[in-house]
Amino acid sequence: MGTGSSPCASCKLLRRRCAKDCIFAPYFPPDDPHKFAIVHKVFGASNVSKMLQELPIQQRADAVSSLVYEANARVRDPVYGCVGAISFLQNQVSQLQMQLAVAQAEILCIQMQQEPVPSLPTTLMESEDKSPFSTSNSNSINNNFNNNLQQYLSFASSSSSIMQDPVKRESLWT
Ligand SMILES: [Zn+2]
Asked: Which Pfam families match (predicted)?
């Protein structure tokens, strides 16, 4: 305060003098007091200070925005924090990949009905009206929060092996 400039948001909240080399000052300007308040609430000012001191200066701005994001997520969701957002998005990814696999399987079925492969017997075509993929799996993935990643991984590997190997896929139906 002695120099005439206002203290940074951190020093203002902690009611201390904002030194010239204040570690918070570049990242917590006085016009955004909430940014420091929430980080202080979740991590504690001294922990934030220690974390910033351990980092090279060029990485500190990224670390601060990460801490602010995590603190906001932790306040919104005290149990899962930003893991809640990650799991939600992973769920969405696996559901969309399943929809994509179903759509690709349907496209393949339609293509095979329109352009029958000459070497295949025609009776094979009649057994294809039922898709091997079932959308009933999507609910269990949705509910099974903890196994999400595992299901996602197993689904991704199984769908890619089916979709990338049409010969294998045909052999399933013979
Ligand atoms: Zn300061």
From this structure: LOB
Residue 57 has pLDDT above 90, yes or no: yes
* Dist CA 141 CA 123 (whole Å): 35
CA of 74 to the centre of ligand 1 (A): 25
Amino acid letter for position 23: I
Helix (H, G, I), strand (E, B) or coil at 80: coil
Helix (H, G, I), strand (E, B) or coil at 100: helix
User: What does pTM read for this prediction?
Assistant: 0.57
State residue 22 phi and psi, 5-degree precision: -55, 125
Span from the CA of 69 to the centroid of ligand 1 (angstroms)? 21
Compute the distance from residue 45 Cα to the ligand 1 centre, in Å: 11
Question: What per-residue confidence (pLDDT) applies to 172?
Answer: 43
Confidence of residue 114 (pLDDT cuts 50, 70, 90): confident
Handedness of CA 57, 61, 66, 68 (dihedral sign): positive
Residue ranges near ligand 1 (ion) with Cβ within 5 Å: 8, 11, 18, 22, 24-25
Distance in angstroms (rounded) separating the CA atoms of residues 125 and 96: 28
Q: Which residue has 């609430």 as its token pair? A: 41
